[in-house]
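Attaching the record inline, Q. Sequence:
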Amino acid sequence: MKKRLERQARNEGLIRNVNERIERVDKDADARGWAPAGGYFQFHCECGRAGGCGAKVRMTIDEYEVVRLQDDRFAVAPGHEDGAIERVVVTNDRFVVVDKLDQVEALVADDPRGAPSA
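Structure, as predicted:
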């Protein structure tokens, strides 16, 4: 596999860890009744592009939790999916959920929640 694609998959895992920290703060805000209008919180796009990605995805806590049920799933901004390493499993106007292809699953298996891949 190309080094670039391996690096991209690893970057996605790193961004997932950042989003996990954001989600903890967002969950607390939600529990305190401080959720933003519509209940949408902003998370970093987990596309792992070289040089970083500044895009944000708007998700509810429940939507984010569904993505995190599998360690090989990531939330990316629409148009940021990469068919070379992932397939689209959910799409809407705010985000796309992608599932890693078998050949890169091992690169993202360090899920902080210990979630399995399906």
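The mean pLDDT is 84. DSSP finds three helices and five strands in the chain.

More tomorrow.
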